[in-house]
Amino acid sequence: MTDQVTEREVGRSRARKEDARLVTGQTNWTDNISVNGLLHLAILRSPMAHARIDRVDVAPARERPGVVAAFSGRDLAEGLGSLPCAWPVTEDIVLPDHPPIAVDEVRYAGDPVAVVVARDRYAAADALEAVEVDYTPLPPVLDLEAALAEDAPLVHADKGTNRCYVWPLATGEDYASVRQRADVVLKRRYVQQRLIPNAMEPRAVVVTPLAASGEYTVYSATQIPHILRIMLSMVTGVPEHKLRVIAPDVGGGFGSKLQVYGEEALALAVAQRLGRPVKWTESRSEGYLATHHGRGMIQDIEIAATDEGKLLGLKVDLLADMGAYLMLVTPGIPILGAFMYPAIYKMDAYDFTCTGVFTTRTPTDAYRGAGRPEATYAIERIMDELAVELGLDPIELRRRNWIRHEEFPYTAVAGLTYDSGNYEAATDKALALFGYDALRSEQQKRNEHGDVVRLGIGVSTYTEMCGLAPSRVLRDLRYGAGGWEAASIRMLPTGKVEVVTGTSPHGQGHVTCWSQIASDVLGVPFEDVEVLHGDTKAAPQGMDTYGSRSLVVGGTAVHHAAQKVVEKARKVAAHLLEASEHDLEFTHGVFSVKGSPEARKTIQEIAFETFSSHDLPDGMEPTINAEHLVDPENFSYPHGTHLCAVEVDTETGRTTIRSYVCVDDVGRVINPMIVEGQVHGGVAQGIAQALYEEAVYDDEGNLVSGTMADYLVPSAADLPEFVTGRTETPATSNPLGAKGVGEAGTIASTPAVVNAIVDALRPLGVTEVAMPCTPQRVWEAIEQARSGK
Ligand code: MCN
């Protein structure tokens, strides 16, 4: 007989089941996949940001040793559709054609131009230099404001404009009238630099054809095997039922693998043509050009308030850099942020407009937080400026405006109903952990002494919408997919359990957490649960992993599916124990008859009896397996308070983070250690935006920060010790009471750091430092303030 569990799994810091394999190299990365006859793809990319393609001759490459085939864009164009944009945010959005490989024109440095196929990857890469391409340069389009001028050169000449869309949202009272009653109106411009997602594993794809049946298996380092399958079928014409997509072990994504990439379509098209298995693996520097970027926005934000610091209204005008083409959800990224500018604050009016702009740069799309870090940055920065203007402590200003615990559920001015929250508790806890008052007095002393190294304190009180999400809301936003998630539970005859999930983890630890959830509901040991994912044959239904949705949607589906298993098992147990279902208790995996505890059956015994099906209730199918699809009623709204203390050397401009405290409220926690890890990773990425990372382009549109030597991804040594705390305000929109955590740290941390830097330098007259706040930028800001410019 199998052991039953007596301790609750949910809430335990279980070491991740999946890690032993990952850290000992017994992994199955896409690039490790090798099959007989495998051919390798290399892709020639445009060296120019914008040019007409006059001629492509791949014939010389075909002569190179080891080369099996070579294709120009024109060679491959037939039969290949446009890459999909699944989030056309307005009816009149400009949707340019996006061929997986350029045919007539290249629109960013890195746009694919030709494909070489060879027996090994080195032969393929070497032969690229033999491909002849004649280009006529066209003017690059790099400046978001200049791109909107009447006479601006056009990224897509056939569209007649670089304006992709204009998306307005005006909620609450009329902003102009509210502004009139304000005592203070502040306006600021913030720039969200472009960021390059740096997943540990670069992208890779392997396609294996099965000639006899016309089937293809696509292995891809993707976050979205299910969506990819549908979209690849539409782009290449391979019928969906003949396509199997497998996301093997995937080494991170941060949104960059929430995509349908040209290379995936090209690999499939080449495998189709040659009838041979093919592989493409991106190099790191190739990824910097060809994997989508994140952020890239100019934010004009205006806040109106009374003398007492009561917020009245907010106006935001956003210019969002789409890059050269619209990828899967490019236009929707700033729209996800649109709802978050009012954040945790009460106000009467909100007026938002986003203009999407095409430029001749790598397309942008989701990057950890996707729209919400930008919104949080702008509101949290301007709240600090307003506090200074009103002579208030920044935390006091926030206290005067945030939604109070007893006011939940609360419909915020942008229209979202926050189900729960306790901003007071999280802030109080963070302040205590941080030692706020002591740091403020030290700061004052240093300022009075005119110290070279100044101390700055930054706060960020945030919420965010995640757990994407209710399908009906997504439909209203013109998002092309639903927000549901699927799970099924297979009770194997020997009492072991397979959880099949539609989520597709790539570092988050779903195998562990889903095991914890299933174990609790079914009463079977954690070790007896296996989780299957990331394969459209094994887990045919799913909406994949992004938007910190997996726990609150996918985990909830696991919970419900497990409950269905228990209910089916109850019927069998009642029959076998000759009792009424209502007289059965179910505790720790054991059904027993109330009042006669010796009359009992474990759920594992039921699984075996059902399999052998000798004695089932009439009409009952011989299985207690179950499936459940969940479509949540609402997003989830994690929140918290992050506090950062920096020391800024006013002679060198160097910033050192002295302490970093974050108290996050992600509702009920399934696995505290995993949540802690998510917060650490998220905060690291937010700090990276504040201090280090930027995709820099020259005036011709070349990416000059094109390697890891030029684009500074911080290592653990560059980051401070994080002090983490939690408060737990359960979500009311899912039975787990959980809120998402995957992006929270990134969303909260960037403004905390920049607020701290500006706070340190304010006595010197500095009111703004542009991100990333490199020593040079900080030093320049000090010099500018000194010289009064
Ligand atoms: N969790 C928990 N209790 C909670 C909330 C979450 O135990 N109250 C656990 C979940 O069970 C899950 C993990 O924390 O194991 C993250 O859950 P969730 O917030 O639902 O986020 P997703 O699983 O949907 O992951 C997506 C999210 C996003 S959008 C980005 S970007 C991101 C992130 O996850 N990219 C990551 N974290 C990442 N972590 C790694 N290692 N690699 C990435 O690419």
From TrEMBL:
Cofactor names from the entry are: Mo-molybdopterin cytosine dinucleotide
Q: Which organism is it from?
A: Streptomyces albiflavescens
| Leader peptide range in chain numbering | none
Top-level taxon: Bacteria
Q: Which UniProt keywords apply?
A: Molybdenum, Oxidoreductase
Q: Which SMART domains match?
A: Ald_Xan_dh_C
Give this protein's Gene Ontology molecular function annotations.
Answer: iron ion binding; oxidoreductase activity
**Name the UniProt record assigns to this protein:** Carbon-monoxide dehydrogenase large subunit
Q: Is Oxidoreductase among the key words of this record?
A: yes
Which residues belong to any copy of the Aldehyde oxidase/xanthine dehydrogenase a/b hammerhead domain? 24-139
